[in-house]
Sequence to fold (71 residues):
Amino acid sequence: MAEEIRAEMVANVWKVVASAGDTVAEGDTLVILESMKMEIPVIAESDGTLRELAVNEGDVVQEGDLIAVIE
Fold:
């Protein structure tokens, strides 16, 4: 079953660490967001394959926006 990872706040995508097709483990950093001069890592909550990365560096995400899908 696919796991959708969504933004928890309004933030800028500061750095994309993983890419689609990568095998990820629980706790791996996928993307680093920046909000109010704080860096917030977005981590994988389960093991699997990163099927989709819906953001690029420089994007602005709103609360609830899709960041990634892990299968």
Observations:
- The first strand starts at residue 3 and ends at 6.
- The radius of gyration is 11 Å.
